[in-house]
Amino acid sequence: MHFEILVEDRSGKKALDILVPMIIGNGHTFKIIAYKGIGHIPRNLAGDKDAGERLLLDRLPRLLAGYGKTFAMYPKGYSAAVILVCDLDDKCLQTFRRKLLDILSACRRKPETRFCLAIEEGEAWFLGDIPAVKAAYPAAKDVILNKYKNDSICGTWEWLADAVYKDGSTALSARGWQAVGAEKSRWAEKIGPHMNVAKNASPSFVHFREKLRELAETVA
Q1: Distance in Å from the first CA to the final CA of the chain
Q2: 8-state DSSP, 76
Q3: What is the pLDDT of residue 203?
Q4: CA 145, CA 154: separation in Å to the nearest integer?
Q5: Of all helices (H) and strands (E), which one includes residue 179?
């Protein structure tokens, strides 16, 4: 199985570059493509109003249509799937998932596709493995980590920053979004290698893991 994995930013790519091989093992291939933000689902589902912006949801209708055409030309016996990974943020899960499914339904040729949403943000997957956070940041504040409820809507990246970043999320936010993005990438690089993908407590991570494994097993 070949996986085309679409993510909304570079920190997400850094994390999945580490985690995906842990999940699918050998015998499969994958490519992770990072965009410059999540963007918005186009109202008319045409998408790609400005291809230069590289916003994931804005381009998704044309991306899925393109993958559908490409996958249809693959030789018999070659399996491929698209995996969309993005943050739910403050969206309604059911409404957002329905809109994503509408985009897929509108494709003339539908690529094998799975939608995997980090609830609320990608940092929830790190916080789903507290031992990995502690291995990467031994001085992380236990009082903060131990209060976290998995996949809660709580300002997830700020929660992790308060646990591991000097002076917490307020100090990091004051440095601007570029600094926040750089720190998120650093978390991915430092925490990711310590994670145990079989024991993660984040339900949204478990969903992602199981979707990859189910697809991998269909061609095993």
Answers
A1: 8
A2: T
A3: 98
A4: 13
A5: helix 177-191
Which amino acid type is present at position 181?
A: G
d(CA 131, CA 115): 27
Per-residue CA distances from 134 to 139, 175, 187 (Å): 7, 25, 12
The pTM for the full model equals 0.94
CA-to-CA distance for 87 and 158, rounded, in angstroms? 14
Taking 50 as the pLDDT cut, the residues of the chain under it are none
| Nearest-angstrom CA–CA distance, 11 and 180 | 10
Query: How many whole angstroms separate alpha carbon 220 and alpha carbon 215?
Result: 9
The per-residue pLDDT for 77 is: 83
- What residue spans define the domains of the chain? 1-220
pLDDT value at residue 108: 95
Angle between helices 177-191 and 10-24 (to 10 degrees): 20
At 87, is the secondary structure helix, strand, or coil? strand
Q: Distance (Å, rounded) from C-alpha 177 to C-alpha 157?
A: 12
**pLDDT, tens only, 63-80:** 999 999 999 999 888 899
**Cβ atoms within 10 Å of 85's Cβ, excluding its own:** 24
Q: Which two structure tokens, joined as six digits, stand for 1?
A: 């199985």
Contacts of 12 (CB under 8 A, 6+ apart): 34, 85, 86, 122, 188
* pLDDT score of 218: 84
- Cβ–Cβ < 8 Å for 192, 15: yes
- What distance separates the 2 farthest-apart alpha carbons in the chain? 56
